[in-house]
What we know:
Tetracycline Repressor, domain 2
Amino acid sequence: MPRLSKAKKELIEKMVKERIFNEASLLLQQEKPQLFTMEELALHSGLAKGTLYNYFSDKQAVIEFVANTISDNILVDIKQIYQDNLPDYRLILQKFLRVFLSNMGHYRYMNTAILAFSYENISNGQRFSYDSIPKTSMRPYMEAFFAEGIQAGAFKPVSATSLGVFFGSTIRGLNIALTLASQDDVQQRAQMEKDIEYLIINAICLK
């Protein structure tokens, strides 16, 4: 049997991971994502369990992969927002926040699963933690954005690193709070998101 070329192997891996991402995302957005298992993923994706384990060591690795892929997609969105709205740093920050808040609502059940696995594994000392989501590739980008905004006189004159830490910590805290909050009152949640947007923008912006 002829050996596959490197390009062919990479194409197959890309296709398999896309299928895994799509099916895992759907499963993790169900009302009880804590019940997510590798067996269930294999069944819904049409892949053998052995194939899954060729790419991911366990369900934690799958969840990290899904969350980080979503994070990468968000990063693409915010880069486009940045390019489309320069030099209005306040408007860019406002649109960044709306992207983050929108994703928190859309992936609520997935966030519940991430929280559940995070708390479980923190208690027994394993490596997976909620703070690894979103992945670190977004942090340097946001710090660079804040540095530009400070230099332009749009943001408060503190270090870009401090603004990045403040923004990132606030987003992660909001993700937890909004994930655990009741979703019954849609109007109340919408008002809460507007209030949060107002508070963060006025904490960071000079005008």
